[in-house]
Amino acid sequence: MSIKTVLKQHAFINGEWVEGSGGDRFEITNPATGEVITSISDCSAQDAQQAIAAAKAAFKPWAAKTAKERCQIMRRWFDIVIEHEQALAELLSTEQGKPLAEALGEIRYGAAYIEWFAEEARRAYGDIVPTHKGDARILVMKQPVGVVAAITPWNFPNAMISRKAAPALAAGCPIVIKPAEDTPLSALALAYMAELAGIPKGVINIVTTSKAQEVGEVLTTHADVAKVSFTGSTEVGRIIMRNGADTIKKLSLELGGNAPFIVFDDADVDRAVDGALMSKYRNSGQTCVCANRLYVQAGIYDEFVEKFSAKVAELKVGNAFEDDVVLGPLINTDAVAKVEELVGDALDKGASATIGASKSDKGELFYNPTILRDVSRDARVLREEIFGPVAPVIKFEDEADAIALANDSEFGLAGYFYSKDIGRVWRVAEALECGIVGVNEGVTSAVEAPFGGIKQSGLGREGSHYGLDDYLELKYVLMGGLSE
C-alpha cells in the first residue's frame, strides 16, 4: 500500500472529513527535502467547539457500550493499523523525517497501546470495601471522566495519539485531538483507521490547525471538556494548568525532560556505550526521555568517551528512505538554531567536540551527531532540554556527586545508570528524582509500564494498567438500610 492510501487532507469532526469553517488551509512539508507534501484544513476556535459538541453527544452512547463491545471495536482498530503499517510508516517518515525503520517501529509501538487498552477496557474493576456500619455496604465504582481533549507533539506523531486515545476510548470517553502543526498527517491517518474499524461518529475527532494558541485555548478552557492530556514543553504545560483551573479539569501532563545518564566505574562500559547510543540518538535526539546529560566516573571517563565516539562516528545521517540511515533531520529551523546555540555555549565555556558540532551537508535541517567532552557544569546544554543529536559528557568523582548532579534539575522524567553493584543499583534507583529509571538499559518505553515524570516533568501516567485510571473517576456508593 502507498502513502496515498492513508493520506487525508481534511479535519475529522463528528465522523466527517471537513474543511475548517473559514476555508483556510496550511501546507505540510517534508523536513528532509523542504518539499510540500500536501495542504490540509486549517481549523479555528469555532471548529474546535464543534468537535467538543460532537464528542459530548457521543459520550453517553459510547460509555453505555459494554467493556467487551468497546474492546472488540478497538481490537479491529488495532488490526487495521497493523494491516496498513507500511503505508503509515512511510507517511510518518515523510512528514516527520525519522528513518523508515524507526517509523515502522513507532507504528507498531503505537498500535500496541490500542491493543493493550482494548484489553484493559474489561478490567476497570471497582471494589467492595469492609463497611463501618453493620446495615450498610461500601462500593467503589469507576466511571469515564467525560470528554477528553488531547494536544500532541510532533516527535512521535503516531504513538502520542494512540497513547492518549486508546485509554480514553477504553474507559468510555470520546476524544478531541489537536495534533502538532508540523505533523498532523499521522493523526488523520489513525482517525481513518478508526473510521474503518467502526468507531462511532464523534468518539474520535481530529482538529488540524496552524492556529495552535486559538484552538488550544478552547480545548483547555471549555466547560464541556472534563480532562486534558498534553505532551510537550513544561512552559506550555504551565499555561494548560492555568487554563484548566477555572473548570478544575483533570490533567495528564507529560512535559520536558533532562535525563541524566550515569556510568559508574564498575559498569560494563561496552554495554553502557551501546545504551547511550540508543538513548541519545534515537529520533535524532528529539525525544523527551533521551539521555541529555552523560555523567561518567573519572576512572573510566577517557575509555568511555573514546569508545562512544567511535560508535557515533559510524552513524549515518540522511533521508528517511536511504539505506542504513540512523539520523534524519531536525523538525525545523528553530530546532537547528537551538542546537547550534547550546553547542556554541558549551564550546565557549571550555568543552571540546570529539565528533560533530556542525551542520550536515545533507540539507538545511540536518545536524551531525555530536559528542562534547569536558563540559563545564554551568553550560546551558546541561540545564536545557537539547532535542537534538548532541551528547555532553561530564566527569564525576563518586556516587554522591553523581546523584547530586543528576537531581540538580527542575525536570524529573527519565534517568539512566549503569552499574554491576547490586547495592548501588538499589541506592541510586531510589535516589534519582525521576518517574522512569533505566538500570543497565538505555531504552525503557513499553506499553506494560507506566510512563510519566515528577517535579516539573508533569502529572499522571500513560500506558500500563495505571494508565486507564487517568480517564476514570472513582465513585463511592454507600448502600444503607440493609438490616432485616
Automatic annotation (TrEMBL):
This is NAD-dependent succinate-semialdehyde dehydrogenase. InterPro entries: Ald_DH/histidinol_DH, Ald_DH_C, Ald_DH_CS_CYS, Ald_DH_CS_GLU, Ald_DH_N, Aldehyde_DH_dom, Aldehyde_DH_Superfamily, Succ_semiAld_DH. The active site is at residue 254. Residues 17-477 form the Aldehyde dehydrogenase domain. Belongs to the aldehyde dehydrogenase family. Keywords: Oxidoreductase.
